[in-house]
Write a structure and sequence with these properties.
The chain is an alpha/beta fold and about 170 residues long. It has one domain: Rossmann fold. Helices cover about 40% and strands about 15% of the residues. It is built from six helices and five strands; from the N terminus they run βαβαβαβαβαα. Helix 2 links the parallel strand 2 and strand 3.
Length: about 170
Amino acid sequence: MSKSIIAVYPGTFDPMTLGHEDVVRRACQLFDSVIVAVAAGHHKKSLFTLQERVDMARDALAAYPQVSVEGFSGLVRDFVVSRGGKAMVRGLRAVTDFDYEFQLAGMNRSLMPDVETVFLTPGDKYQFISSTFVREIAILGGEVHKFVSPTIQECLAQKVRSLGRD
């Protein structure tokens, strides 16, 4: 009998981009179950609340039946272990991401020796997309439809209007 392998893909997803969605799609080809873990992100100033980010991710990933989305606060280690995760998915866009992610993987291996970190790269057309760039473009009135799903594009537009920056 084969064992179901659970992977956790943590991040702040502020907002979830098409690059994030592509990494999830790739993870679904490798793992039985993928939990997208939306971090409260205490170290970052987010545009969207945790619940808004969870809701947007759920909507963006609704087509993937083996994906669930949960918000969390605290150490990702505690979240992964409590969900029975055996792999942690991390997206790499460019060489500049690798140094940080490699250090993080080493730290996570120390905290979770039974959990493997798996690096996935998004498709070529998504490698330059970052949530930070998408937020900045939206706030400054630029078009973001090439970088996020239509629902997330609308959420960004509503958020920008609520900030009085449209």
